[in-house]
Specification:
159 residues; alpha+beta; Beta-Lactamase; six-stranded antiparallel β-sheet; 6 strands; globular
């Protein structure tokens, strides 16, 4: 089981704490870029066994790199391309155990083995995605999905 940094190690106990921390962190800040930057830093600090945590923002019919923690990344991704583009086109979280088995996977970091991408919506429209990569296959599970979707729901209040 993958544990979390600086918490008690139970995802079901720790994720709600992080979501409350996100809410408190963003509550008085109106700047979206600052909020996305802090959200990516918070998750990067919280999660073990990840090598990239960040956001892509939907602009002019493609995803454009936003605030992130990790190595330099792909700058633009078309809808339907790779895991992020599929999350946008399907408007559904993509939980990928092995990125090498995902048709059309875009390899921005050769170390990435698994990935989870959660779409972000604003006023019923696509805003972007939260993208998290891990150097370990099978890093993310349904518990991660459930709470990362809640994390994004909290974030949506501040974008």
């Amino acid at each position: 089981m993958f544990e979390t940094k600086n918490y008690d190690g139970s995802k079901e106990k720790d994720y709600p704490v992080v979501i409350k921390q996100l809410d408190a962190l963003l509550a008085d800040e109106p700047d979206v870029i600052a909020n996305l930057a802090n959200a990516s830093a918070l998750l990067n600090q919280f999660l073990n066994d990840v090598n990239w945590v960040g956001f892509y923002i939907w602009k002019e019919d493609e995803l454009v790199l936003g605030p992130f923690q990790g190595l330099p990344a792909c700058v633009r991704i078309k809808s339907g391309k790779g895991v992020c583009g599929t999350a946008i086109s399907d408007q559904k979280t993509q939980l990928v155990e092995d990125v090498h088995q995902f048709p059309g996977h875009i390899a921005c970091d050769a170390a990435s083995q698994s990935e989870i991408v959660v779409p972000i919506m604003k006023d019923g429209e696509v805003y972007g995605v939260l993208d998290i990569d891990s150097p370990n296959k099978g890093r993310f599970d349904e518990i991660d999905q459930k709470y990362l979707e809640q994390f994004v729901e909290t974030l949506e209040k501040y974008i």
